[in-house]
Amino acid sequence: MRLPTLTFAMCMGLSVGALAANLTITQKGRTFSSESITIKKGGTVTFLNDDSVPHNIMSTSQGNEFNLGSQPPGASTDVTFKEGGEVQVICAIHPRMKMTVTVSE
Ligand SMILES: [Cu+2]
């Protein structure tokens, strides 16, 4: 009985990945858990600080600007992406932390 359940779970995971409405990006070791993700327009990304230092996640990409301010370890904030296109997400504290959120129409 375990195998069909596992197969079903994997199929579900793949379909969710292709049409993701909600994803979680963690910050650990001063890096994002993914360099690039794709979500649907109107979808939400949860930014979770799973690190030992504060992070300040933000974007200046037009239509999807946000600034979460300094978030202590353990904090998480949801960001909804309202406009289609490529969104460059950075950490204002750690210049090497960069990722891209592609918002599909
Ligand atoms: Cu940071």
Structural notes for this entry:
With 105 residues, this protein is of the alpha+beta class. It has one domain: Immunoglobulin-like (Sandwich). The protein has one helix and nine strands, in the order αβββββββββ. The strands form two sheets. The chain has a five-stranded mixed sheet, with no helix packed on it. It has a four-stranded mixed sheet with strand order 2-1-4-7, with no helix packed on it. The longest helix has 17 residues, at 2-18. The radius of gyration is 15 Å and the shape is globular. The N and C termini lie far apart (39 Å). Copper (II) ion is lined by residues 30, 55, 91, 93-94, 97.
The whole-number mean of residue pLDDT values reads: 88
Listed once per kind, the bound small molecules are:
copper (II) ion
Question: What's the SSE pattern?
Answer: HEEEEEEEEE
Low-confidence stretches: 13-17
Largest sheet: 5 strands, mixed
Contiguous helical run count: 1
The quaternary state of the protein chains shown equals: single chain
CATH superfamily: Cupredoxins -  blue copper proteins
Radius of gyration from the alpha-carbon trace, in angstroms: 15 Å
Write out the strand line-up for the largest beta sheet, numbering strands in chain order.
Answer: 3-9-8-5-6
Distance between the termini: 39 Å
CATH architecture: Sandwich
From the spread of the alpha carbons, the general shape counts as globular
According to CATH, what is the topology? Immunoglobulin-like
| Name of the level-1 CATH class | Mainly Beta
Structurally, how many domains make up the residues? 1
Total E-strand runs? 9
